[in-house]
Amino acid sequence: MPGNLSALRWILCGALLAGGAARAEDPPREIAEGMPSDPLMLGKTPFTIQGFGDVNYMTQNPDSGHSSFVDGSFELFVSSRLSDHWTVLAELIFEPDGNKLSIDLERFQLTYELSDAFRVAAGRVHSPILRWTVTNHHGLFMQTPIANPIIARWEDDEGLWPLHFVGLFASGRIPGALGASYAAGVGNGRGEIRDEVQVGFDANGSKAWVASLGLAPDALPGFSVFASAYFDGIPAPSGEISERDLTFSLSYIRGPVELRGEWSNLHHTPKGSSTSFDTRGWYVLASYRLPAPVSRLRPYVLAEALNAAEGETYLDGVPDEKAVAVGLRYDLNRWLALKGDVRFQKVGDGPREGVVRFQLAANF
Length: 364
What we know:
Blueprint: H1 2-23, H2 29-32, E1 47-61, E2 68-81, E3 86-97, E4 100-115, E5 118-126, H3 131-136, E6 164-173, E7 181-188, E8 208-215, E9 223-234, E10 241-254, E11 257-270, E12 277-288, E13 297-307, E14 321-331, E15 336-347, E16 353-363
């Protein structure tokens, strides 16, 4: 913990100094003297930091022992435009790991944007295999419910899906009334264990490929449909596993209405084996912002399920899970949201449980 806190202090100090430099009216004299009057040469590139954070409270029945306050994640979302076509983006997360502090660089990407129809990024990005994570990212203020659906849990939160991707990634929107969009990438795949994102090297020669196609027709405002696929060779300790994942997503978001749903299948085949393992999951979210004078209230229902493949060593110990959460989001103002819900769940062969949760989420 002392080492993590020391790293946290240095990172925050660096961010504040960088932000200060970006907002300075004039460059330091020793830099400015003899330099051309090009703002890119004088450290005046726009530099912004957006913060997100949350604090939680939860209790469970049958009682797991006691209720708990949970200091949630603190996120720094940093972006800068380097030229008319180049941008840089970083997403740094400070989050609890038990009673310790964990620091993760969740995203870092350099992006070249030729037009809205074509952009290409290099670095660590969010994989488009699920729409939830590329829409809401990590800041919990951005999403309606308290927590991510089961299939959209991050790798370091016992998630099963490959939600981070390190490599080259292209995306864009195709002009036309169909509202077509695409995304495709190649990079490092999964590591030996599920929560390992290979940021430093690829443990095998098999590269991961991901692709997504979407439609948001002008004739159906608010409606969109996506299909995504992910291909990889996992360097598991028991031997390489061929991974072929597929996801279908639907959403309708217009005015006070929010409807989202996804179904996804992880298809794993050990090399040299004729036996395949399929793990499936889905969720449906429905929410509605109430009319005035209670328009700050948004009740929601989130139904979800996970059916884990039996006998697969790479997913060893993962139980089936079913849950329904009924909750309410109250926007105190544009920067603060108070959420509360009751989650009825069944995990594996355990008893049916009820979990009461509250969350105060901020965007600053």
